[in-house]
Amino acid sequence: MKTTILAIAAAAALSAAACSGRTLLEGDAWTDACPETEITLYPVVPEVLIMMDRSNSMTYDGFWEVTRDAVISMTEEYQDTIMIGLTVFPSMSCTTSNSDLDCLTETTPIVGVDFNTGAAISSTLLPMTTCGGTPVAETLLNMRDYLLGRPRENPRIIMVATDGAPNCNLGLNPNTCFCTCFNGDDCALCYEQSFPANCLDDLRTYAALDALRSDGIKTYVIAMSWAAVNWGEVMQEMAGHGGTEDFYAAENPEDVQSMFDTITSLVSKCQFSIEPSEVPDPWLVNLYLDGELLPMDPEGRTGWGWASETRIEFFGPPCNMIVTGTVDDIKATYGCPTFVLGM
Asked: How big is the CA angle at 280 (ends 278 and 283), to the nearest 5 degrees?
């Protein structure tokens, strides 16, 4: 893995050398024609808002309790170092005895984003039961409003954990829509009983994810059971629009905990802040892993990039290397033109 990353970095460096005026010497060392000074990288504290599916199918396929327990476990483990909040969809107002409430959504998190929310999340989730449909789009938009109302000092992340495709858009036509069937009866509700709540609400969901991404808020998608097996294309589109490329598949209940742990490690270890006074020009910054130049990747796939005016983020394999501890030294420098992948 590391050999591949360094090869990519070397190729990008060679292609950019003509622009920077720097040349390679023996041992892949740069000349001092462009002196660099080291700048300090500071760990950042991400804000993680968990969006947890509580639709009825979470009970049918056995994912409700394991997902609930995984969220509680993750929160208790990371609550001292990460700000974590929780919402569910549909709303807690949904009850199994009133189908009119199946698509209601929370307008704000049921546990606000903060440090040390483990006890509040545990006490909220343990007595909760499942209910209703899968109103992903509206919940995303509501959580966007909430996050935009907070100070923007920290990177903000949404984790969506669901076992079904998004629905609950009552404006869709049940006679022409694609139905999110869990069984034959659900399909009949779409077509025969004119019930739009079961129509696939993919386009509105993608638009909500695009809006979040444009505001600098990434969305990670954990697709469980039915969603991972039968709605993979929709889950992949959701991940792409959310800015994370691939969804995380948990086809079995025992996979859920590891998915939460993996994503939490990614969001907590791959971003760093930089003091603005040290970086008058962001195009004169370069990053090194264990002394090897890592190119900036404008596509956000492998390498690093600017997450904001004061934060840098590692992507893809370099991020994985940092998370797994295979990198001993991460260094940032200022003074030489940034090497950009493919330029």
From this structure: 105
